[in-house]
Write a structure and sequence with these properties.
The protein folds into 2 domains: 322 residues, no CATH class; 114 residues, TM1070-like (Hypothetical Protein Tm1070, Chain: A, Sandwich), CATH 2.60.290. Helix content is 6%, strand content 47%. Strands 21, 22, 23, 24, 25, 26 and 27 form a 7-stranded antiparallel sheet that branches. A hairpin with a 2-residue loop joins strand 19 and strand 20. The chain starts with a helix and ends with a strand.
Length: 509
């Protein structure tokens, strides 16, 4: 018998409906009934890298240009005094490096030197620190300079100096590594990026230092900032700056790297000397801006510092560079240290993108000790300049640069020889911190343990003994610097954290 087509079609539809119902039941059951869980931890290994040896490079003696009647010949003006040590009390190794650009015959030996130490001692991280200082009185170069011995890097920023008439800035580029370093310099000024032929592809052989007058690359720049980048070997960069006003020397300084671009920059230990305001100024410089009124710290109207420095180099000024394409809206705070007679201040400032701006505030600060903080809407680079002396005293200058970061736990601080050394500390946390400075080796006579109570948000300082290595212990992060002040002598350098020691890494196949 033949089956009717409608019956066959109905049977197929009924079968499909039944299949859908069965499938729906399976899905519903899967959402109700617990499924077996598969929990498998991927295989891995915990590996602790072996700590490598450490190096700190001390940049060596100050440089004089024009020795022996030659306008380009260079020579050392002084041999620096060094203080260095390790956390075990053993002295570091010392290796001199060559300076082919400097004539060494008949003068002081200011060759740079590298401090070396292992990464660990009996399984514990080893701390290493060094610092150098020198006094120079050679013709137009008169003053005092102290500098920390630094770790090499492949990228850094120098924010100091000037190449206008009467100002000399010299780059010291040292390669302590075992391979040749190729260095590219990017220079910025008050008008923006500077076209500088010859600033790229500078070759520095292993174990050597190159001396490069900045004016040969970027003449007539009042406010230079230099980015130093290297490939191959890593380098240590420093900038020697000096001033001559007419026939009168105006100071000398050797400045290391400032912190890289960031939204917050901290400049501890800024010293403002009232005597510097009476120092001779450059007769070619424009008149100083009128005094700004009010004191934000006292509840008055925030001062309105001049847009740019008047170029005299005796005023206290903040140097800011905005490396991006967006203008920076800054909040600049100047906090007086505990015990200082001066009052702090705070003011807003808009810094143009791609340009360097010097912001003076000599008229707004009394003599004393301060810490400058810069809060920005975009990353910036910052430093500050101050001077001391005048009248019967020689004039000296110093550049205060930002530490690369805060220090915590234990850090070694080497305080070289110099007048009235002080350690400055700032706590940006919400609770007070107690820091301890313990003399290590070497320790000069009279050095003793110093306990420093650091309030939240308030900078403090403590006198220390020159020629001593201190172990700085702090349970919380602190920004710090070391400064020196004497009759016609002023200098400063930051307390930077060392590279982190080798820590365990979990490796997955």
């Amino acid at each position: 018998m033949t089956e009717h087509p409608r019956l066959r079609r109905g049977a197929r539809i009924g079968g499909g409906v039944l299949g859908l119902a069965v499938l729906g039941g399976v899905v519903a059951a899967g959402t109700i009934l617990p499924l077996p869980a598969v929990d498998r931890t991927p295989p891995s290994s915990l590996i602790t890298p072996e700590a490598t040896g450490q190096q700190r490079l001390c940049p060596g003696g100050l440089i004089g240009i024009g020795a022996g009647g030659s306008a380009t010949a260079t020579s050392f003006l002084a041999s620096p005094s060094a203080t260095a040590g390790t956390s075990t009390g053993e002295g570091p190794g010392v290796n001199r490096i060559a300076v082919p650009d400097v004539a060494s015959e008949g003068g002081p030996d200011g060759s740079p030197f590298v401090l070396t130490a292992p990464g660990t001692a009996e399984g514990d991280p080893l701390l290493l620190a060094g610092g150098q200082s020198q006094v120079v009185n050679a013709g137009e170069s008169v003053g005092f300079s102290a500098t920390a011995c630094a770790e090499a890097s492949s990228d850094g920023w120098l924010a100091a100096g000037s190449t206008v008439v009467g100002r000399t800035s010299i780059l010291l580029l040292s390669n302590p590594s075992a391979v040749t370093a190729t260095v590219d310099l990017t220079i910025f000024g008050e008008e923006g990026p500077v076209s500088a032929p010859g600033s790229a592809g500078i070759s520095i052989v292993a174990g050597a230092q190159r001396i490069i007058p900045l004016a040969g690359l970027a003449p007539d720049i009042a406010s230079p900032v230099v980015r130093v980048q290297s490939t191959g070997g890593q380098v240590v960069a420093a900038l020697q700056s000096s001033v001559v006003r007419g026939l009168e020397p105006g100071g000398v300084e050797l400045t290391g790297l400032t912190a890289g671009p960031g939204l917050t920059q901290v400049l501890p230990g800024l010293r403002v000397s009232a005597a510097a305001g009476d120092a001779a100024v450059d007769p070619a410089a424009p008149p100083a801006p009128p005094e700004a009124g009010g004191d934000a710290a006292a509840g008055g109207t925030p001062p309105a510092p001049a847009e740019e420095s008047d170029g005299s180099d005796t005023e206290t000024a903040l140097r800011v560079f905005v490396p991006g394409n967006e203008d920076a809206v800054l909040t600049i705070g100047v906090r007086a240290e505990a015990g200082s007679a001066g009052a702090g201040l705070s003011f807003p400032f808009e810094a143009p993108a791609g340009r360097v701006t010097d912001i003076p505030f000599t008229e707004d600060l009394a003599e004393g000790l301060y810490t400058v903080t810069v809060e920005s809407t975009v990353p910036v680079v910052a430093s500050a300049r101050s001077s001391t002396g005048g009248g019967a005293s020689a004039v000296d200058l110093a550049w205060f640069v930002a530490p690369s970061g805060p220090v915590s736990g234990e850090t070694l601080v080497a305080v070289p020889q110099g007048p009235d050394p002080r350690v400055h500390l700032l706590n940006l946390g919400d609770a007070p911190v107690q820091a301890v400075l313990t003399p290590a080796t070497p320790a000069a006579e009279g050095a003793a343990e110093i306990v420093v109570d650091v309030p939240a948000g308030a900078p403090v300082s403590a006198p220390v003994v020159a020629g001593t290595v201190y172990r700085l212990s702090s349970p919380e992060p602190l920004f710090g610097s070391v400064t020196f002040l004497g009759d016609g002598q002023l200098s400063a350098f930051p307390i930077n954290p060392g590279n982190p020691s080798a820590s365990p890494l979990r490796v997955y196949p």
